[in-house]
Design goal:
The protein is 27% helix and 19% strand. The protein has 372 residues and is an alpha+beta fold. The protein folds into three domains: 99 residues, Beta Barrel (OB fold (Dihydrolipoamide Acetyltransferase, E2P)); 63 residues, no CATH class; 148 residues, Chloramphenicol acetyltransferase-like domain (Chloramphenicol Acetyltransferase, 2-Layer Sandwich). Helix 8 packs across helix 9.
């Protein structure tokens, strides 16, 4: 039977692998085109992987926290037409590296009994029931009358594995066989990743909070930056009164003309790009005894996230954009950063980084930024 192979996508030129954070869909679930199947993480950013097709999940090849190479098959999807025409059969579990079953079915004792003859024939009643549904009904003592009354979400009202399991979960134990009322199918809410755990000392004066993944990466990159780059700070005071007054005069007409808000960030990025073009030796890095002069001007802009973490999306070829183009790019990257929709290649390759500590009321600051 033909199946669509979902592979670990290539998220950027230097990204060769990603870690599975959470399966949004499980085996047996239907998925629409562009609906998220899995959440993954690289060393740059967390991302969601959408389904390129509509259909049903028939196999998940990896578990949460597995690191998978780009291009490897991570899931199998039966196309929508195929999923509707054939009953779902749970895949046989694969052996994991330590020899234990992988993706073990939730109801192994039910599914393993499919070899025995079910008590409800396939053609019984007004609807067709798949072998899996009939075996679950047999194990749970669900009569044909109950099956006939059970609402189905499958093709042409067919009862699916999900439907009958929801019925079993909400079934009243005291109800006599065949007399149960039509069940109400309750969807389980998506499981959110656990919050960082906190530990408090016995005297209550010391609290230890475990870092989340992004904060660990930030800490590692900051230490790497201090170890590999000399850090020198220099402060120059600039009067930006005219810039502030100009923005106040044009911000309404600018938004009306271009459909974008004009903040100070694109103004400063335009000034930086012009300065780098005039003084190209600012846009360099060092490799041993060699100075690498970057011809492209890719400006990173530090962006605070709702979680309290920080990410640095990159505006590529900033010197080739006018102020309206910079405003549009800045707003787009900032908005998508806050809802975790940046691609890994959008947070790497920066040659110069801009940050703004003034939003915290600071007069000046010396940030440590590592933007590979």
């Amino acid at each position: 039977m033909a199946q669509f192979e979902l592979v670990m996508p290539k998220m950027g030129e230097s990204i060769m692998e990603a870690t599975i954070l959470r399966w949004v869909k499980n085996v047996g679930d239907f998925v629409e085109m562009d609906e998220t199947i899995v959440e993954i993480a690289t060393d740059k950013v967390d991302s969601e992987v959408p389904s390129p097709v509509s259909g049903r999940i028939v196999d998940l090849r990896f578990q949460v926290n597995d690191t998978v190479e780009v291009g490897k098959v991570i899931a199998l999807i039966a196309t929508e037409a195929e999923a509707a025409s054939e009953p779902f059969m749970a895949p046989q579990p694969e052996a994991s590296r330590n020899g234990s079953p992988k993706n073990e079915p939730a109801l192994a004792h039910i599914e393993s009994s499919q070899a025995s003859a079910p008590s409800i024939p396939a053609g019984s009643g007004a609807r067709f029931y798949s072998p899996l549904v009939r075996n679950i009904a047999q194990q749970e003592n669900i009569s044909l009358n109950e099956l006939e009354q059970m609402p189905g979400t499958g093709a042409q009202g067919r009862v699916t594995k999900k439907d009958i399991l929801a019925y079993v979960a909400n079934r009243q134990p005291s109800s006599p066989s065949g007399a149960a009322a039509a069940p109400q199918i309750v969807e389980k809410p998506a499981v959110k990743p656990p919050a960082p755990s906190a530990f408090t000392s016995s005297d209550g004066q010391v609290e230890l909070i475990e870092m989340d993944r992004m904060r660990r990466l930030i800490a590692d990159h900051m230490v790497m930056s201090k170890q590999t780059s000399p850090h020198v700070t220099s402060f120059v005071e600039v009067d930006v009164t005219e810039i502030v007054q100009w923005r106040e005069r044009v911000k309404d007409s600018f938004q009306k003309q271009y459909g974008e808000k004009i903040t100070f960030t694109p103004i400063f990025i335009e000034a930086i790009a012009r300065a780098i073009r005039d003084f190209p030796l600012v846009n360099v890095s060092v490799d041993g005894n060699t100075i690498i002069v970057k011809k492209d001007i890719h400006i990173g802009m530090a962006t605070a996230l709702p979680s309290g973490n920080l990410i640095v999306p990159v505006i590529r070829n900033a010197d080739l954009l006018n102020l309206a183009g910079l405003a549009k790019t800045v707003n787009d990257l900032a908005n998508r950063a806050r809802v975790n929709q940046l691609r890994p290649d959008e947070v790497q390759g920066g040659t110069f980084t801009l940050t703004n500590v003034g939003t915290f009321g600071n007069v000046m600051g010396t940030p440590i930024i590592n933007q590979p």
